[in-house]
Amino acid sequence: MTVRPGDTCLAMGISDLPILAPGHFMSVMESACVAALVELLENGETTIVDKFDISLIDSVGIGTEVRATARCIEVVDRTMIFECDVYDGERHIAYSRIERTAVERVSFLARTAAQAITKLS
Fold first, then answer.
1. What would the mean pLDDT of 40-63 be, rounded to a whole number?
2. Quick check: helix, strand or coil at residue 112?
3. If DSSP codes are grouped into helix, strand and coil, which group holds residue 8?
4. CA-CA-CA-CA torsion sign (43, 44, 50, 55)
5. CATH architecture for the domain at 5-120
6. Domain ranges of the chain
């Protein structure tokens, strides 16, 4: 991802610095996890995030191209644990440990929709 002005802490109103916002670090790491877990899922399954621990090592500004890597380090029942890293070129700028749980897509969406309807009542 290339950092755009709208991706910054300044644009999101979380600080006065035009640096990549933490939420975008998380998004690029999530995308790397999704790409890495495709072969671990059964047909009709997807995953949801259970836990996300992130450490930011350095900041990057507008125009910087960042890339993330993810590798599954452990599978416990339906939970997959990933280690992720974000780089600016060769410079390591963030890392995380993410836990994702496999769910059956249709059942999960039906349950979520039912919960939303209950809240409207």
1. 95
2. helix
3. strand
4. positive
5. Roll (3.10)
6. 5-120
pLDDT in tens, 58-114: 999 999 999 999 999 999 999 999 999 999 999 999 999 999 999 999 999 999 988
Residue 93 makes CB contacts below 8 A (sequence gap 6+) with: 56, 57, 58, 59, 60, 66, 86, 87
> What integer is the mean pLDDT of 20-32?
96
State which amino acid sits at residue 94: A
- Count each helix (H run) and each strand (E run) in the chain, helices first: 3, 4
What Rg, from alpha-carbon coordinates, does the chain have? 17
Under a CB-based contact definition with an 8 Å cutoff, are residues 85 and 44 in contact? no
Given a cut of 70, whether residue 121 has pLDDT beyond it is no
Query: What is d(CA 72, CA 102) in angstroms, rounded to the nearest whole number?
Result: 13
